[in-house]
Amino acid sequence: MKKYEKITKDIIAKIENGKFKEGEQIYTEKEIKEVYKVSSTTAVRVLNDLAVNGYIYRVQGRGSFVKKILVNKKIYFTEDNNFDDYINIKNVEKSTVLSVEIISDEKICEKFLNIKSRKLLKVSRVKHIDDIDWAYQINYIPVKYLPNININKLEDFSELATMIRKKYNIDIHKAKFKKTIKVTLNTPEEIKKLIAKNNEPCFEFDRMTYLEDGRVFEYVKIYINYKYYKIKIEN
């Protein structure tokens, strides 16, 4: 386990056992450096990870504070596409591949994939039923996990999980994952034109899928028109 991961885990434990209570300020960057004897880079990484994983929120000029969270509370979480309320479904859901490319993106590598900048496979798809485009999905996967990948046949990527399972023996659907969900009114314009033509709000998802050894296999960004998604939470 890397040093920043150990520190992040330790601070999470302090949040969960009540040392840092909801709404209280946690360590500053300077305090993390002093308490754990690490560099500014490591301290910033720790705070970023805590924020991305929903443990803290940050206030410019004031510091970082503990969020009200349900982390590690045992609940039952059910997702539903909510199609029945809006669509007279005649056909099955399909994906249209808009682009497949090899890119470099330092921000995504460091923030979501926990790796130094390297080549990524980027697959952009829109999901639709009948003539309704209801979701937009972008997958980012380090190319090192996909040797000899051929990006010239777009149709091979319409069912990306199936292709990866068959070609690389990695079953994304059975892998561990972490997902954050929020509602946004700031869907990118090029995506809004496809799935939110009337400026509807969208659900925005950030999902990381993990290999058995704990490494992040992929990062997925998803936008769904608010009409076509709902959740139910029970304890």
Write the layout of secondary structure elements.
Blueprint lengths: L2 H14 L12 H8 L3 H13 L3 E4 L3 E4 L9 E5 L13 E11 L1 H6 L7 E11 L2 E11 L17 H9 L8 E8 L4 H7 L6 E9 L5 E10 L4 E5 L1
Antiparallel strand pairs: 1-2, 3-10, 4-5, 5-6, 6-9, 7-8, 8-9
Helix pairs in contact: 1-3, 2-3
Could you characterize what this model shows?
This protein is α+β, with helices and mostly antiparallel strands and 235 residues long. 24% of the residues lie in helices and 33% in strands. The protein is built from six helices and ten strands. It has helices at residues 3-16, 29-36, 40-52, 106-111, 160-168, 189-195, and strands at 56-59, 63-66, 76-80, 94-104, 119-129, 132-142, 177-184, 202-210, 216-225, 230-234. Strands 4-5-6-9-8-7 form a six-stranded antiparallel β-sheet. A hairpin with a 2-residue loop joins strand 5 and strand 6 (132-142). The protein is globular and about 60 Å long. The two termini are 32 Å apart. The mean pLDDT is 90. Residues 1-69 form the HTH gntR-type domain. This is Transcriptional regulator, GntR family.
Compact description:
With 235 residues, the chain is of the alpha+beta class.
Portion of residues within helices: 10-25%
Q: Count the DSSP helices.
A: 6
Strand content: 25-35%
Please state the average pLDDT score.
Answer: 90
What gyration radius follows from the Cα positions, in whole Å? Answer: 20 Å
User: How do the strands line up in the largest sheet?
Assistant: 4-5-6-9-8-7
